[in-house]
Write a structure and sequence with these properties.
Blueprint: E1 2-8, E2 17-20, E3 32-38, E4 45-50, E5 59-65, E6 71-72, E7 80-82, E8 91-97, E9 111-114, E10 118-119, E11 126-132, E12 139-145, E13 153-159, E14 165-166, E15 174-176, E16 185-191, E17 201-208
Parallel strand pairs: 1-10
Antiparallel strand pairs: 1-17, 2-3, 3-8, 4-5, 5-6, 7-8, 9-11, 11-16, 12-13, 12-17, 13-14, 15-16
Length: 211
């Protein structure tokens, strides 16, 4: 599950991700296919999220990497299926939902992120903290959503007791701390040398089940 923190420091850009259909109305028991595609050869992992009605948090359904087996989080294994990515340059994939139920597709864990919002000037340093109480969710991932963009960009991740990893575009200004706690887990995202042109966005923390 993810939780957002908006940070205002200017304007930032991401890649174009297209998803269709834009909206769906289906009855219980139906099957659903949602298609996602983009044109960036180096973006080889596709992640799917669910946002429950009236909730600002995003729940990770699962993900797939190009040429690898997909993975669905335990609450979604029964009714959700993520297809492998296709294409050597442009990438496309699908999320299938079978046996649609109004009551089963919005479960998740409680993830707390603070502060709720930040306004900082260029050159400042920022810390965003994230925590949850689930011992088996041992990986923490951080994402960024650029203004006006529905896509999420992976900043990096850290697993409990292991070294953190930042994606290449974020290595210079971003640092993810190791998870602490044997049961409840906490970690932080640090941004140093804020730039008005790069770092204004909504930042999300996500917890992933150990597998």
């Amino acid at each position: 599950m993810t939780c957002p923190t908006p940070l205002t420091a200017g304007i930032s850009q991401g890649i174009q991700v297209d998803q269709s259909p834009a909206a769906l109305i289906r009855k219980a028991g139906d099957a659903v296919q949602i298609v996602c595609s983009h044109g960036e050869a180096d973006y080889r992992t596709m992640l799917w999220y669910l946002q429950s009605p009236g909730d600002s948090a995003l729940e990770l359904i699962g993900y797939v990497s190009y040429g690898r087996i997909s993975y669905e989080e335990p609450p979604y294994e029964e009714h959700f299926n993520i297809t492998d990515l296709s294409g050597n340059t442009a990438k496309s994939g699908s999320l299938f939902i079978v046996g649609l139920s109004e009551s089963e597709h919005s479960a998740g864990i409680q993830v707390d992120q603070s502060p709720a919002a930040l306004i900082r000037k260029a050159g400042d340093a920022v810390q965003i903290a994230c925590s949850h109480g689930e011992a088996d969710y041992r990986t923490m991932l951080w994402y960024r959503q650029s203004p006006g963009d529905s896509a999420l960009e992976l900043i990096g991740y850290v697993s409990y007791g292991r070294i953190s990893y930042e994606e290449p575009p974020y290595e210079e200004h971003f640092n993810i701390t190791d998870l602490s706690g044997n049961t409840a887990k906490s970690g932080s995202l640090f941004i140093v040398g804020l730039s008005e042109s790069e770092h204004s966005a909504v930042y999300y923390c996500a917890a992933r089940y150990a597998h």
